[in-house]
Design a protein that fits this description.
11 helices, 26% helix, binds beta-D-galactopyranuronic acid, 10-stranded mixed beta sheet, 14 strands, alpha/beta, two-stranded antiparallel sheet
Length: 408
Amino acid sequence: VSMASGQQADPAYNYDEASVGAYTLPDPLLTSKGKRVTNVADWERRRAELIQLFAENVYGKTPQQNVKLRFQTVQTTDNALNGLAIRKQVSIFFVDYPQLPPIDVLVYIPKAANKPVPVFLGLNFCGNHCVTTEADIPLSTRWMGDGPGDVSQNNKATQKARGMQARRWPIETILKRGYAVATAYYGDIEPDHPQGWRSGIRSVLGDTSRADNWGAIGAWAWGMSRIADYLATEPALDAQRINSIGHSRIGKAAIWAGAQDKRFVAVIANEAGEGGSALARRWYGETVERINTSFPHWFCDRYKTFSKRVADLPVDQHELLALVAPRPLYVASAEEDQWSDPKGEFLGAAQTEPVYRLYGKIGLGTTTFPAVNQPVGHTVRYHMRSGKHDVTDYDWAQYLRFADALVR
Ligand code: GTR
């Protein structure tokens, strides 16, 4: 069967480069009134407009209420990881919403530091007990998706889940390089299923009757900002140097968090794919229609109206990435993660260039898709490593180099 460009038997995803078809990207430097942005002051206004467009059409509006927080230290040890780290577990309570569970934050701070250290802040997929093999981290009692292996049973964490994702969190390596690590289970903010909002922050903030009510990604991003609120109170940490990092769906949230909250000094989007770093208009891998079908709770309702008319979206994902400018941005792909569309992620990063140039910075500095395991870029960096959808030591080696160069 031959099909015209842009058409496919199953319209919800595509792995055929020849079927991607032509598309025209919206210009980040052209306002919705058709005015050309030529300087930083214009861009700051355009930036606000873009945040609003992403809120109205993609992620939903992040409520701007000031939410009263209480930070309760649950446990501290100055002898974690064989004496390498100070480890703190701090619960963030929502004072005016006692019905909400707290966000349980786990922080590792290098003991050797003699001044406040920069931090990598990223949410995790299966509870704090998953990111480390340290046996005295309490097992999360929250709702847990039936993840890979024995990570959970009947939506509860199991003892077997301990350290299950430790490989993705090379904490000792990061600490030895002079950075702290902060993490929390993303399900503390909202359990990742269509009814999850009922027991998370979206049950008390937002307006479910609206087409631009925030979705789960918006809630996770908001949660990252609340964790940043707490981190800013820790004297051992450098509040000016909190990196927003995330993988996949959590990477989508990490970008949206960094886009809205300039306190994040840099953004690292590991295989954030559709609705993250990959161009929506590039019809390859997962598509807007597919993600809206599989994960109806991630985005605002209005986003679903674009499932079959992506070209009508007033924004595309390169503009989300551009909201990070002039701050450092890292976009990463994996060769065997075609679902995330490595080329679409590369193009997303590359298309931020004119915005970085406004600030006199070189962004990616290239429009040539690099070979596998060949990192490229300047203030914006990109790599496609070999292997599958994952976070590996290779990825972290690049992120640490990037942070050493740009976030110190
Ligand atoms: C997939 C989803 C992707 C990505 C991924 C993940 O099922 O289609 O957009 O979010 O999950 O989070 O690992």
